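Exam revision sheet. Question 4 asks you to relate a sequence to its structure. Input first:
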Amino acid sequence: MMKKKYPSGLVNVYNAAERLKNVIVRTPLAVNNNLSGVYDAKINFKREDLQRVRSYKIRGAYNKMAVMSPESLAKGVVCASAGNHAQGVAFACNTMKVKGTIFMPLPTPGQKLEQVKMFGGDYIDVVLYGDTFDEAKDAAVKFCKDHEGIFIHPFDDQDIIDGQATAALEILEQSEEPIDYLFVPIGGGGLAAGVCTVFRELSPETKIIGVEPSAAASMKKALEKGKPVLLEKISRFVDGAAVQKIGDLNFELCKNILHDMAVVDEGMVCETILSLYNKDAIVVEPAGALSVTALEKYRDQIKGKNVVCIISGSNNDITRMEEIKEKALLHAGLKHYFLVRFAQRPGALKTFVMNVLGPNDDITTFEYTQKNSKEKGIAVVGIVLKQSQDFDPLLNNMKKYDFFVTYLNNDPSMMNLFT
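Answer key, structure tokens:
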């Protein structure tokens, strides 16, 4: 039998696909009718949220360990991850009967932590360390040196990238027509590097759009500076993409292939999470919503085009839903916090409700303590509106009836107390 001939630059990717074919799920590439109508385009979802560990990370983790020598595996593997890479490594450890030590940041959502333990079973130990992925990674690297373990990097490794690239192979095999735009979420850059590697060879006309959270935009900053740089401060909310520094190898593979970079606010991501759940019954984690969130920014460019969004993962903790709803409402201009002055007399609250609130406004937060020997007291009031246009009438009424003290939404230090 003749051996298959692959493009020279993709031999390792096709070999990875062969290794993974009995390990991973060949996730569907499905048209989303709702968003296709919204954007007057063919919007396809590559559903990596349906992968065995509910993210694409199993591809790279398993491929990396599958090419390691038995002698290296016998030393035990070590990784650092905010959750999804950890699950991929844990699954590979259990499947291949290899001992693993997994470092995760202390704020890791409980759901991801429990999934790691479930997939790894008795073959893995979990160590919670640091506030960010980068702090956990530094601890993992030190642990490797002290214990002669083998570090499995979550993204800055060619074997990891080759594994993630198999998702791109599937996309091209599954698409019935040329792909005009592909939106790929970026954290450390492993998936994006794999996508760029494959599409450069097999579909160079496709415009690849990288998507990052605005509060952790390490690839965008690297492209601006011409090299990876360490972000001094990031938000951990989009935990699957909360990386302070893009991988060096990932940057080199992406820098000349990415057509554009989109950064999206956390509130927009939260709106997408809720919309996907309510309209399509699709559960995604914040990083899994990045690619879909960016569509609005490219509404004009994608009209009439064939578009693919990679849904990277669905490991979302149900306890985060209240925070997600809050951020979505704030971003949409539907929830507002105020310091409000109340006369300390019977009926003051009734006056506020009757004369200040609109017919569809709803008080969701009210914190007030009556003070002795004072004519007026200050309350923190949170109000949800039916539509954003109702804000100006609400504010005008507060001032008209002398309730208004200050508006809190624009004060980050105060808003941290409520969100």
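Marking note for examiners. The chain has a mean pLDDT of 93.
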